[in-house]
Every structure is written in structure tokens, then in C-alpha cells.
Amino acid sequence: MFRGRVQDGRLYTVYGKEEYGFPMDDQELDRIDLCHAKYYALLDKKRFLAPIPSHPQKVLDLGCGTGERPHWQPPGLWWSANTAAPEVIGIDIAPTQPEWVPPNCRFELNDMEQPWTWPENHFDFIFARDLILSVRDYPKLIDEIYRHLKPGGYVEFQSVTGTIQCDDGTLPPDPTGSALRSLSEHLRVAAAKFGAPVDDPARWRAWLAGRGFECPAAQEHVYKVPVNPWPRDQRLKLVGAFEQENLLSNLTGMTLRLFRRALGWSAAEVDAFNAGVRREVRDWRYHAYWPL
């Protein structure tokens, strides 16, 4: 039976070559499902953007988390239980997926950064979302993806970065004057020490284009994830409400192991720092956002 490891009151996975920064307990699984809803709203009711064929036969979901993405897919696409042919494989280093799934879907306990055992030229579409603190070597992972995609297949990465942004000057630019700016800076330093920089998504397009994918097809779309419901736009206001709940309820899970391991903080220091971040997250005067 698979068992995790409890540290500072949170449950972490012990599978995989490298240490993963986030927990795998029920609170974290609820956060992941909340993020699925948040991204669905952000992408205007789309799960992915790649112009894949209407009937892909083999799909790989890297870091599938709770496995909810297949069940939330609307009828007519491959993850629907009513769809006939396709094979969908979801892999993760934490066995947190449901037991009851459509017959064309299965989950595997697997480390995506270890050598792949599937046949080459096998998948029509490979998808990954929020591989934060998960991937130490994206070029190596992209090489594996390239070998295992069929000619004409697509890969899509989606992820927020931990680099806080503000376009109108409402958020103080100096980390010493803003808890959110300080959070962003500490995330940058800690994640680099952890071996999984939070700004890696900014390098995805160049890595993809440089390792065999067609340059005209390697597209990058940047979206704004508000930290609270400050936007006037109703869709972004909803996204901000999701993200505010994410930060208020789950900030400890996102920072505890990372700051303890990489920065040498105590659990009490992490809690005290997060309290300041939460105060700013509640303040709609700060028009801050994460790029996705």
C-alpha cells in the first residue's frame, strides 16, 4: 500500500526521484479542484487551447492531480464516458485519483521525469497543467514528449508563475513595502534553490521551438489571474474570487515545505509571513495578478 509522509501536519508524497513541494492531503486536493474551476472560467470555458483533431486516439495527462479533468470534460470530447475510442492516461506521483473512471481512462503512479516506457510516436495530445515545483529539467521532459508524440501531435503546458505583476502602480514595487511582492521574491529564490524555478514557463516557447517542435505552431498565450476580485470585468472578477479563496485557504500548503527546505524558515516564521500576505490578498486596492 502506498503511504505518504507527514511533515509539519501536512501529508506529502514519497514517490518519485525528486521531492515535490506541495502536499497531497485532502485540503490540497480540494485546492486542485478549485483551480480546475478557476482555469475553466479564465479560459472562457475551455480546458485546453491546442487545435487538436476532433477525435484524438491517445491522450496523456502529465501530473493529473485528482484526476478530475477527465470527468469535467463536456460531452463530445474524448474524456466523456460516452466517447467511444480514445485512450486517456493520467499520471502523477500521488495516488489521489478516483477508482471509478470511464472505461477508456486509467491512472498510473509514475514520475514523468524518469525514462518513459510508452512506445514512441504514440500520443496525439500530451497535456500538463501547473507543474509547479515538479519539473527539474524541462528540456529533458520536452525531449521525451517529442519522441512520444505522433507526427502532427500537440503538447500543451499551462501554469501560473509565481512572479506577481501589477499594471497600474497600486501594488508597491519594493518587496519591503508589500507582502505580495515579498512573497513573489521569496518564491523566486526558494524555487530556484529547490531546483524548479517558478519562472520556467516563460522559457517554454523557446525550449519547445529549440527541440524539434514547429516554430510557427509553438504559440504562447498569457492570461492574468487576479489575486482577488478587483477587476471590473465579470469573468476576471470570478477568477479573482477563486484565486483569493485559493490564497486565503491554501497558502500554507503552497509555501510551508518550500520555505522550510529552501530558505531554512521555521513553521512559525512561515505562518507569520503568510498572515501578512493574506492581509494584502483581502485588500481590493491592490490590483495584482499572476501571469498564466
Describe this structure in words.
- This is Methyltransferase.
- Belongs to the methyltransferase superfamily. LaeA methyltransferase family.
- It comes from Thyridium curvatum.
- The structure is a single chain.
- This protein has a single domain (5-291), classed as Vaccinia Virus protein VP39 (Rossmann fold, 3-Layer(aba) Sandwich), CATH 3.40.50.
- The protein is built from 7 helices and 10 strands.
- The protein has helices spanning 26-42, 68-72, 138-148, 179-194, 204-210, 234-263, 267-281; strands at 5-7, 10-12, 58-62, 87-92, 105-109, 123-129, 149-158, 165-166, 224-226, 288-291.
- The chain has a 5-stranded parallel beta sheet with strand order 5-4-3-6-7.
Secondary-structure content class: alpha/beta
Written as H for each helix and E for each strand, in order along the chain, the element string is EEHEHEEEHEEHHEHHE
Give the CA-based shape.
globular
What is the level 1 CATH name? Alpha Beta
User: What proportion of the residues is helical, as a percent range?
Assistant: 25-40%
CATH architecture: 3-Layer(aba) Sandwich
Outline the biggest β-sheet.
5 strands, parallel
> Strands of the biggest beta sheet: in what spatial order?
5-4-3-6-7
Q: Roughly how many Å apart are the termini?
A: 36 Å
Assembly classification: single chain
Mean pLDDT: 86
Tell me what portion of residues adopts beta-strand conformation: 15-25%
Query: What is the total number of structural domains?
Result: 1
Protein name: Methyltransferase
GO molecular function: methyltransferase activity
Pfam family, one: Methyltransf_23
InterPro entries: SAM-dependent_MTases_sf
